[in-house]
Amino acid sequence: MIKTTRARSLLTQILFYLPWLLGILVCLGLFNGALDHRGNSLDDLNLLSHCNLRLLDSVRSWKELGFWQLGGLMSFRVSLTSLPPPTDLYSSQSTLYVVPHFFAYQFGGAAAFWQMIRTSVYTAAGAMAAAVAMLSWLIIEERIHQAKVPSFMKGLVLFAAFAATFPSEGLWAGVWNSDDRALSSVLLALASASLALAVRFHKALWHRIAAFLLVTAALGCPRLGVMTAITILIGRYGLPRRDRAVRAIMSWSMALALLGASAVHYIRVGLVDLTGRYVLDGSSLLDRFGLIHKMRGKGQSDLDYESVWQAFGFVWRQSELMIRSDWRLRGLENVEHLLFYLLAAAGLGLLLWQMHRGASVYLAPVSLVSAPPLIWGVLINQSVAEHPDIHAITWVVPLSLGLVLLLERIVRSTRNRFGVFWAVVVGAWIAYWFFLWQVQYFLRSYPGLRGAYPT
After folding, report:
1. What distance in Å separates the CA atoms of residue 311 and residue 309, rounded to the nearest whole number?
2. C-beta of residue 321 within 8 angstroms of C-beta of residue 169
3. pTM (whole model) above 0.90
4. What pLDDT score does 19 carry?
5. Helix (H, G, I), strand (E, B) or coil at 396
6. What does the alpha-carbon distance between residue 217 and residue 226 come to, in Å, rounded to a whole number?
7. Which of 184, 252, 342, 448 has the greatest count of CB atoms below 10 A from its CB?
8. CA distance linking residue 306 with residue 311, whole number of Å
9. Burial 9-37 (b: 16+ CB within 10 A, else e)
10. Quick check: 126 pLDDT over 60?
11. Minimal CA–CA distance to 97: which of 127, 76, 117?
12. Distance separating alpha carbons of residues 431 and 440, to the nearest angstrom
């Protein structure tokens, strides 16, 4: 009798989530179909961006000369064919995110390298969507008991998390232009989700996983590691100590571990510099902080560094391809792009306010993934303003959370006024609109989808 009851309960749970999981599979199929429809494609020729060619030259140089012979740094030259040994190396980025591309090139040549470019973005999109889904589901589960949120929301938020996160422009711009913060942003998202799972299940294992992911993220991108360390110290004194997540992660020992992991890259750069064999390229610290008098010619391509507000330039027009080329968007598309991000930001602000007001046990995990990109935009201002399309990936998870939890408020209000049927219809429609708008913008606004990268 007990086994029969458990089997029925399991079947009920499967049927409860099945429609939403099918919706995710349908949207994934539509997305893949859209990338190969009417001339759109991610073929090798359409991936020949300056960034990808620099990565190709770096992994080729590592294979020919040896990874440690170049100090583990990138040669960063724009070339599709082999060049003489480099004399200059790029020192501003950690190279952990290039290691998969190096192994792909070593074992499969250029074809495997280009396949890794595509695979890495798909993997990042899936991982970030999973992190948003997990955080959203746990927050909704908590609210079901606190605010009488309808139980069907636990299924809807999974679909909404995928729809808001997977096609995000901040992720897919990385097909042509990315750096070390991409990998570390994914690891930070997974660390936040692991910390939330530790709170939910009271398992120390998830705390250890979160700590490991945070340290790895700091090794992968030292700047993000420093921003996360600052976040942890602020959380150590600014968040309630009664929360298990705060006690386990928001500590001086964790912050020092992150600062130590971040220092590894700069120690390596210093050792390479001491050899005197290479000229190290990269902007100075004061320039990166925005303490610079130059307004013209310092920013990325045609994007001059004119204001501190350019750290949020990705909300208006983040595509590096559009900045570099003569491709121009209609004003309405820029306005829609801005409104979409403002809607997400409003949802994130509302989420954080509600979590603080309701003493949510998941405030620490959400703060862990939301604060670093904001602190980065303030402290390393010029660097962010110079690369709006690259930095946008750091905002993918917090802004997607804002969209999902804003949807939850709309669905709850609709249910109270019009019943469950219309709440489900409205919620599913809005979630799909999140998906459709982002895919449509991506297809229409990125020239690299339809032809060779402009040189």
Report:
1. 5
2. no
3. yes
4. 86
5. helix
6. 10
7. 184
8. 10
9. eeeeeeeeeeebeebbeebbebbeebbee
10. yes
11. 117
12. 14
